[in-house]
Amino acid sequence: DVRLVESGGGLVQPGGSLRLSCTASGFTFSGYWMNWVRQAPGKGLEWVANINRDGNEKTFVDSVKGRFTMSRDNAKNSLYLQMNSLRAEDTALYYCVRDLSGPFCYWGQGILVTVSS
Amino acid sequence: QSVLTQPPSASGTPGQRVTIYCSGSDSNIARKTVNWYQQVPGSAPKLVIYNNNQRPSGVPDRFSGSKSGTSASLAISGLQSEDEADYYCAAWDDILNRYVFGSATKVTVL
Description:
The complex is a heterodimer of chains A (117) and B (110).
Chain A: E1 3-7, E2 10-12, E3 18-25, E4 34-39, E5 45-51, E6 58-60, E7 68-73, E8 78-83, E9 92-98, E10 106-107, E11 111-115
Parallel strand pairs in A: 2-11
Antiparallel strand pairs in A: 1-3, 3-8, 4-5, 4-9, 5-6, 7-8, 9-10, 9-11
Chain B: E1 9-12, E2 18-23, E3 35-39, E4 46-49, E5 63-68, E6 71-76, E7 85-93, E8 98-101, E9 105-109
Parallel strand pairs in B: 1-9
Antiparallel strand pairs in B: 2-6, 3-4, 3-7, 5-6, 7-8, 7-9
């Protein structure tokens, strides 16, 4: 079965850092573009970033450029989101998503990030 | 404010047909494919329509999508109680250079 399991979330103070991980299983991880999508409490979906199959092409939403980086390790079937200089408005449930706009789209269950003092 | 505009709510009785509309612009819907996601409260979203009108494996054929110009729509025919959820349209935006989601439509089964 396809599984995407996010980890690394939690409570962090404004200005702090967190590294989210997404561990994939049940499919050929290296064959898919991967995405991070977030959802603030009670709000809608917001696309955060994507990365191509090789990890050498990445795109970010403007609000996180310069603060977030994204990477993947195909040998470990893992996706990462390094989040620095965190702000209150980054508080959200972060989803790891495979093939966001294609027939093999699959969402993880999400991991909560709370930025608060 | 979302780049893609959806009505906040829609409703129908079991068995009815409900249509949700999504309004965009030349930089997104007009030139890019539209996707639709279903999010049942407390659960992760799920893709129900991709490439304007294609259903992923396992999605009932009660769900259908279409696109015309800068607008798209999702229709749910034979409405069932399990269809009660938030529905989001989405597309890539060439000017913003990011994937954009609609503001969500909450479908209620009366």
